[in-house]
Amino acid sequence: MKIKKGDQVQVLTGKDRGAQGNVVSVDIAKNKVLVEGVNIAKRHTKPTQADQQGGIVEKIMPLDVSNVAVLCPKTGEPGRVGYRIEGKNKIRFHKASGEELP
């Protein structure tokens, strides 16, 4: 998977299309990512021992990896990620601009 935790991404499809945020977590087995502030669902919870209050809780729901694109750190444009090997180092880069990704 070419998207990592901490990457700045833009949502390409769905109700939050165009929204940008940081990747909170990545699930490699399911090809899903959690993006901060995007695809938020409201869950109604009953009071429990752990949560005395209960009520309506906002929860970040996962997005498929194919529905997000990494933003270039230089230009801010969404695009794909590539890899190149320089010596013994494997470097991630933004394919559209050629800019290295952290």
TrEMBL record:
Keyword terms, alphabetized: Ribonucleoprotein, Ribosomal protein, RNA-binding, rRNA-binding
Q: A Pfam family for this UniProt protein?
A: KOW
Which SMART domains does the UniProt record give? KOW (SM00739)
Superkingdom is Bacteria
> What's a GO cellular component annotated to this UniProt protein?
ribosome
Where is the KOW domain positioned along the sequence?
A: 2-29
Q: Tell me yes or no: is Transcription among this UniProt entry's keywords.
A: no
* Main function: One of the proteins that surrounds the polypeptide exit tunnel on the outside of the subunit.
Q: Which family does it belong to?
A: Belongs to the universal ribosomal protein uL24 family.
> How does this protein assemble?
Part of the 50S ribosomal subunit.
Name the PANTHER family on file.
MITOCHONDRIAL RIBOSOMAL PROTEIN L24
HAMAP family tied to this protein: Ribosomal_uL24_B
Name recorded for this polypeptide: Large ribosomal subunit protein uL24
Give the species.
Acidimicrobium ferrooxidans
State the organism's lineage.
Bacteria, Bacillati, Actinomycetota, Acidimicrobiia, Acidimicrobiales
